[in-house]
UniProtKB/TrEMBL annotation:
This is Probable membrane transporter protein. One of its GO terms (cellular component) is plasma membrane. The chain crosses the membrane at residues 7-35, 47-69, 81-100, 106-125, 137-157, 177-201, 213-233. Keywords: Cell membrane, Membrane, Transmembrane, Transmembrane helix. The keyword Cell membrane applies. The keyword Transmembrane applies.
Length: 265
């Protein structure tokens, strides 16, 4: 158990840095890590992906608070955007979480693998939507939040890979989009976690120290480390060449996606 907790701490440290540095949400690396770890700690194969998604979202509650606080100190969080997008985020992520708990593990894994390839392609290409418009009003922003929430729950992320391009296309400066995305990660994580708890409640054969599809041991280790390392990622994001870092991270995502796809075959 001690070794497993150390592994969870290491996963959380990596996720925290990435959440602050790239605005992609630590879940994009947490989910593959937990998919590899959970079978060794008694999680049934048919629940591994759901447990990884639920635990990833639960940990993002902590990571997003730490990251958003650090970005807010630099004046990089647009709270007006946060207020407008949150209602759609809450509804979309909660409903998406409930749906995901009843989907076959294979389908969720395929969705996640495809998502990794799409994110990697976007990072390698450096494509950013042209900033040709302003942020929509409450209804439009909340509607976008609904879609971001739904997809975020299927892949266990804080939504940064979706919300950052959306805000950038609406003339929000990149660093401000990343900072606001960190704050948006909190309602995504709260609603998604509740969805996975409710959807996984009372399932047979789950190991001890789980709350629905949230592994509490993993949450403890990951959240503790990510809370401490997220501000480091924020600091690095304002000091390092983000484009080069994103290209390197994209190559890592491709390797992870290929490995997961190979495992399915």
């Amino acid at each position: 158990m001690l070794l497993t907790l150390v592994i969870y701490l290491a996963c959380g440290a990596v996720a925290g840095v990435l959440a602050g540095l790239l605005g992609v949400g630590g879940g994009i690396v947490l989910v593959p890590m937990m998919v590899a770890i959970f079978p060794t700690v008694g999680v049934p194969a048919e629940y591994v992906q759901q447990m990884a998604l639920g635990t990833s979202l639960a940990s993002i509650m902590i990571t997003s608070i730490s990251s958003a606080r650090a970005h807010n100190k630099r004046g990089a969080v647009h709270w007006d955007i946060f207020r407008n997008i949150t209602p759609g985020i809450l509804l979309g992520t909660f409903v998406g979480g409930l749906i995901a708990t009843h989907m076959p593990t294979l389908a969720l894994k395929i969705i996640f693998i495809c998502f990794l390839f799409v994110v990697a392609a976007q990072m390698l290409s450096g494509y950013r939507p042209p900033a040709t418009r302003n942020m929509p009003g409450f209804a439009g922003t909340s509607g976008v939040g609904l879609g971001i929430g739904l997809l975020s729950s299927f892949v266990g992320i804080g939504g940064g890979t979706l919300s950052v391009p959306f805000m950038s296309s609406c003339n929000v400066p990149l660093h401000h989009a990343v900072g606001t995305s960190a704050a948006i990660g909190f309602p995504i994580a709260v609603a998604g976690t509740l969805g996975f708890i409710v959807g996984g409640w009372g399932r047979p054969d789950l190991p001890s120290m789980t709350l629905g599809f949230v592994n509490l041991w993993a949450l403890l280790g990951i959240a503790s480390a990510s809370f401490l390392t997220a501000p480091l990622g924020v600091k690095l994001s304002h000091a390092l060449p983000a484009d080069k870092l994103k290209r390197g991270f994209a190559c890592f995502l491709i390797i992870v996606a290929v490995k997961m796809a190979w495992g399915l075959l």
